[in-house]
Amino acid sequence: MSPTAAVALAATYQHPALAAVETRGFLSPAGVEIAFLLVGLVTLGAAIVTVTTRQLVHAALWLVVALGGLAVEYLLLTAEFIAWVQVLIYVGSVVVLLLFGLMLTRAPIGRSPDADSGNRWAALTVAVAAAAALVWVVVDAFRTTWIDLDVPAAGSTRTTGESLFQNWVLPFEALSVLLLAALVGAIVLSRKAKPEPVEPKPSTPATGSAPATGSAPTTGSGPTIGSAPTIGSAPAPAPAPAEAPAAPAAADAPDPSEGGVR
Amino acid sequence: MHLAYPVVLSALLFCTGLYGVLARRNAILVLMSVELMLNAVNLNLVAFDVWLSKAAEETLRSGQALTLFTITIAAAEIGIGLAIVLAVHRNRGTADIDRLRDTAERPERSEKAEASA
């Protein structure tokens, strides 16, 4: 008796959801849903090619397809301003920055066999498990939830600007300060070692006394970035003997090997 | 539109980016995968904002505002990240994450040093 009751309970439990699905026509999707699905397939395919291709420059170019597809999805979701910001910032600047980064790190043109690390199967397992869990939870949670796209555009420039400058002014201004900090930080990080010609000057009078040579690199290593290029690009013989007594043998061992590689 | 479409696409994109972060060796490819993950989050935010657009006065349109903030922070992140990768490449001659093991655990390294000695 109890199994039939359970079945009947399950039937009555599932019925409203199915009815709600059928009234909205789950099996006959609207045109915008079909467009969303097709663009989503293109986006997902481009993203998968981005993370699996062995040609580094092609990965950046497929990323353009994925991000552009996402901009189309934003347009389909009536978020117009975000769509154009996406095109402007991601496709216009981020991918260009990535291509410049690939160029400056001397990425090989053509197939590079070691683009993937050795743990790609573990990564694949983790990603598939996460995808399965997330999709299951999300589909189960939002099975009967519908977006009403017939209302006037939720993300037009007017409404976005009004909300941004009425309710979100303080975070907006704080974000501009953060962008300034990021700009200054990127410039400081990527600056060539200007203090390098200045650095041998204290070391040349300091060669007379052994403790003074130990103190000279420590003052130079206050800005760690400033001192690091002198280690890598040290053609001058002056810093090399200064480091040899200061650094232990364990820290000294990697340096000649990397100098030999490049 | 069914809310499951954008949300499922966002989940799949996020997991694609997760695979890229875990499986890639070049640091710039890892940054690309991070961008994919951030974009998945953006799609989620936009979808939920449009879903709740009836209550736009109560939610302050927080979804789209947060999406704009995320895009800005992603731009800052990619700038700083590329600067760090370039500095590492300039100093070490490589941008491969597998080879940057300076902060690996000490005992393993001392064993290697003893084995090589």
Automatic annotation (TrEMBL), chain B:
Residues 98-117 are annotated as: Disordered. It holds the Pfam family Oxidored_q2. It is found in: Cell membrane; Membrane. It is a multi-pass membrane protein. One of its GO terms (molecular function) is NADH dehydrogenase (quinone) (non-electrogenic) activity. Keywords: Cell membrane, Membrane, NAD, Oxidoreductase, Quinone, Translocase, Transmembrane, Transmembrane helix, Transport. The chain crosses the membrane at residues 66-89. It catalyses: a quinone + NADH + 5 H(+)(in) = a quinol + NAD(+) + 4 H(+)(out). It is an enzyme of class 7 (translocase). Its EC number is 7.1.1.-. Belongs to the complex I subunit 4L family. NDH-1 shuttles electrons from NADH, via FMN and iron-sulfur (Fe-S) centers, to quinones in the respiratory chain. The immediate electron acceptor for the enzyme in this species is believed to be a menaquinone. Couples the redox reaction to proton translocation (for every two electrons transferred, four hydrogen ions are translocated across the cytoplasmic membrane), and thus conserves the redox energy in a proton gradient. PANTHER family: NADH-UBIQUINONE OXIDOREDUCTASE CHAIN 4L, NADH-UBIQUINONE OXIDOREDUCTASE SUBUNIT ND4L. NDH-1 is composed of 14 different subunits. Subunits NuoA, H, J, K, L, M, N constitute the membrane sector of the complex. This is NADH-quinone oxidoreductase subunit K. It comes from Streptomyces heilongjiangensis. The gene is nuoK.
